[in-house]
Amino acid sequence: MLKVSVENMGDLAVVQCEGRIVQSAAAFKLREAVTLQEDAKVVVLDLSEVIAVEGGGLGMLMVLQRWAHDHSIRFKLFNPSRSVRARLERASSLFEFDIPTLDEMMALLGLADRGYALAG
Predict the structure, then answer these.
(1) Do residues 74 and 68 make contact, with C-beta atoms less than 8 angstroms apart?
(2) CA-to-CA distance for 75 and 45, rounded, in angstroms?
(3) CA distance 106 to 101
(4) What pTM, to 2 d.p., does this model score?
């Protein structure tokens, strides 16, 4: 089962995922959460709590990456576990995923927080 929650901070949407992205229901749930973020400039998928990604989930990540590109949205995968990262690396011959470092993520959050505070 996959749990998904979204936190929006200005132009940044952080989609937090927990569980497994292995069945089509989980992949579609993820697609719905991400594609609702059309107004974001950056969508970050927080994979910290994802324990497995299989074929359907991996395919959906590729679809979402293409969707983001088509909507001029930067799409990033943050903090995948060792096993999820290995699965992503095996697929990277097809697609190159943007996986920011902790420092890059902190900078993104800082910029989003500043922009969000100014807008409020």
Answers:
(1) yes
(2) 8
(3) 9
(4) 0.87
Residue 89: pLDDT band with limits 50, 70, 90? confident
pLDDT at 91 over 80: no
CA–centroid distance for 115 within its chain:
21
DSSP codes, 63-81:
HHHHHHHHTT-EEEEE---
Domains of the chain: 2-112 (3.30.750.24)
Does residue 32 have a pLDDT over 70? yes
> For 77-104, what is the mean pLDDT?
84
Q: Residue 44: which H helix or E strand, with range?
A: strand 42-53
Q: Residue 81's CB: how many other CB atoms inside 10 A?
A: 15
Angle at 62 between CA 59 and CA 68, to 5 degrees: 140
Instruction: Give the residue with greater pLDDT, 76 vs 116.
Output: 76
Closest CA to 50 of 22, 8, 29, 24: 22
